[in-house]
Amino acid sequence: MTTIPVATAAPYDVEVGRGVRDRLPALLEGAQRVALVHAPGLTVPLDGFEVLDLELPDGEAAKTADVLTSCWERLGAAGFTRSDVVVTVGGGATTDLGGFVAATWLRGVRVVHLPTSLLGMVDAAVGGKTGIDTGAGKNLVGAFHEPAGVLCDLGFLDTLPEAELVSGLGEVVKCGFVADPEILALVEKNPSAALDPASDVLAELVERAVRVKAEVVAGDLRETGGAGGSVGREVLNYGHTLAHAVEKVTGYTVRHGEAVALGMVYVAELARLAGSLDDETAARHAAVLASLGLPTRWHEAPFDDLLAVMRVDKKARGSTLRFVVLEALAEPRILTGPSEEHLRAAYEVLA
Fold first, then answer.
1. Is 315 a known ligand-binding residue?
2. Which residues bind NAD(+) (predicted)?
3. Is 96 one of the annotated binding-site residues?
């Protein structure tokens, strides 16, 4: 087991390893009731606690106002109090919705996350971002609400569908480009090991990605900007501006990590066209992602449709689009107001 501290104002630990789900009772100390917010078919034993079972729809369908309201009504009917605890068991969508339930019930109750997907482990469960989707886009309604703890039990990955494992690696590779190039070196040296749930390589990739996120959110929890004018938490949105647009226009049929892969290839080309990034590093994006089976080509929607969604991206300011780009490996910056010519030309790299 590896323990990774997240040193925010309300500090907590992320525990990574096989069997760490057994640590759950220690994180529930003092509670009598637990609201178990979980994806279909996923659960954990909670002996000794009164359990309110809140099973969610699968995937992104869980992240709606209707589902959120249903959970609130169930909590109210059960008389759920401030001393009770929400536990989430599932992938990123379960963590986002369950975290938002905890953030909003009685203005905030304790929550513990047990992510069961690679994406949930390296992204959604760490950092306290919670939220739901709306008709206008993804994650536009939400709150920051830090968990009391996160248990990343690598045993869950043994039964994870391969497509979901591959998708999660999109977020892992992102951490490599923006902060920890050793992640890229590990993938390039042995892509097969990165895809093996039982390998030491994948375990190290998970730990490294979690450490990247823990360090970033400790310095800028609420995405207001890092110290000394650094990019801060926005760096974790590398590739996400186009990614969220792809997800939205396809009705979330493209997996998040797949969309992030496309978004990174796009933004690398955008940075290259803007004179920010060298040709070799831009091309490295597609090479690393393709070696893991992630998509690097996609032209299934008119760019105007994607652009309309990107204009309501959370990083936008007024009518000005802002993108996280690289100047070099692990050297991110914000590109503000790129020309429409470059925006459109960069999309052609995905053709």
1. no
2. 58-63, 92-96, 116-117, 129, 138, 156-159
3. yes
Q: For the chain, where do the domains classified as CATH 3.40.50.1970 start and end? A: 2-159
Catalytic center residues = 107, 129, 171, 213, 223, 233, 237, 240, 244, 256
Each residue's pLDDT tens digit, 230-249: 799 999 999 999 999 999 99
Confirm whether residue 171 is marked as ligand binding.
yes
> Is pLDDT at 115 greater than 80 in this prediction?
yes
Q: Helix H segments across the chain?
A: 24-27, 65-78, 92-104, 118-119, 162-178, 182-189, 191-194, 200-219, 240-249, 256-273, 279-291, 303-310, 340-347
The answer to whether the annotation marks 38 as part of a ligand binding site is: no
Is the CATH number of domain 162-350 1.10.10.10? no
- CATH 1.20.1090.10 domain locations along the chain: 162-350
List, for residues 181-211, the tens digit of each pLDDT value.
999 999 999 999 999 999 999 999 999 999 9
CA dihedral 298, 302, 304, 305 (to 10 degrees): -80
66 marked as binding residue? no
pLDDT band at residue 136 under the 50/70/90 scheme: confident
Output the CATH code of domain 2-159: 3.40.50.1970
